[in-house]
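User: Second chain of the day. Same drill as before.
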Amino acid sequence: MRVILDSNVLISALIGTGSPPDLIYRAWRQKRFTLVTSKAQLLELRRASRYPKLQKLVPPSEFGALINRLHGALVLDELPRINVSRDSADNYLLAMAVSAEAEFLVTGDAKDLLRLKKFGSTRILAPTSFLKLFKR
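Assistant: Same format as last time:
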């Protein structure tokens, strides 16, 4: 099963031990699903790691470890141009879904991505919904 975790889910996994994002991240580390990422997402996470607000919550070494581990995921180099989301910054996630033929995109973005519910064959779910489905 191929799964995309939005950057907000990955960052939340670092912040909240035992939270749904953390449990999902741990499931990937236990090889319970194939995580899909991209060079674009890795760049986004590197930028986020420099935000002073996040640096207060997550030590740089933990951010670095996350980014290094993500190199063990399925990393997409090239992404198609997609212009579907109301927030253009989210379109690369939808492009990843198409490129990887992902079953799920897990996000905390209720304002834009979760409203779509589905993109192509990819279901878009909140972390709690994905966990419920995943634990079946």
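The two ends are 14 Å apart (CA to CA).

User: Great, on to the next one.
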